[in-house]
């Protein structure tokens, strides 16, 4: 040991405080997992619609097995999510809690977001191997990813598209009403394009994604609704030179985990009409770790980045930018692509993401 090395004394108080934090984290992780189950089984929605009930009544109303519902309620009561009266055996979900846990609470339904923990946890063994060999993963490793992503973006993007997101480019709604050509790259489930196709029948919409199963349900729904102005196609965006010419191109939480993010932005630039607009929504963190320390969502964002975004990009042969590639990097890459006008926006309903309006 170097004679000048100072040995930091062991601080028992700090050690105990850290142990307490880990215990709290363990309990919080359990609550998050059980919140996901409460969402998927509609237990929160059912309980919120009742003035108070026993476990038997809740299970009957939800169409579930009482023994499991009772154990789930044990988690909810001991974590303070659900109130319990031991004298009557009645459980109650306070309206202040229901405001962040039920489907009626959208876009504030945090129970939707809790599902990501189960999705990324399902690839733990795969990721242990990737830590050792440096390789990547593929979309098929994540069982419910497209489903959960679609539900999450349904709250943050689809529901807010017309009233909050499109007005970031003031002329867009009028142009959509008159009729323009719109492309969504990395469209996922395609619900954003479905929403716009319904709202603006004079415009034409195309969704492109690497995975056909991502938009399969929406494609069927569009056919049933006779939305002839909406189409989807499977396309590896890293393998083409041109997408055509579009008046509006969108990318919702899609650029950072591409095989070639810069190449995609170059492709988008080359596919815009002269007066076209590129609307990109992506994670609004910083590429500077220190700048993210005070962000309460940073541990979740880095976890999703580690377990999904980074390895999926690497699995395609990409750079693995990760979800926390940073607003700074996004702005720089947009400029490299050729965009001369880049405006970055934050929206009150969405603390996680940044919205970019880019023009030639």
From TrEMBL:
All residue ranges annotated as the S-adenosylmethionine-dependent methyltransferase Rv2258c-like winged HTH domain in the record: 29-103
Key words of the record: Methyltransferase, Transferase
GO term, biological process aspect, one: methylation
Keyword Cell membrane: no
GO molecular function: methyltransferase activity
InterPro entries for this protein: Methyltranfer_dom, SAM-binding_MTase, SAM-dependent_MTases_sf, WH-like_DNA-bd_sf, WH_DNA-bd_sf, WHD_Rv2258c
Coiled-coil parts of chain: none
Domain Methyltransferase span(s) in chain numbering: 178-295
Gene3D superfamilies, A to Z: Vaccinia Virus protein VP39, Winged helix-like DNA-binding domain superfamily/Winged helix DNA-binding domain
Pfam families: Methyltransf_31, WHD_Rv2258c
Protein name listed in UniProt: Methyltransferase family protein
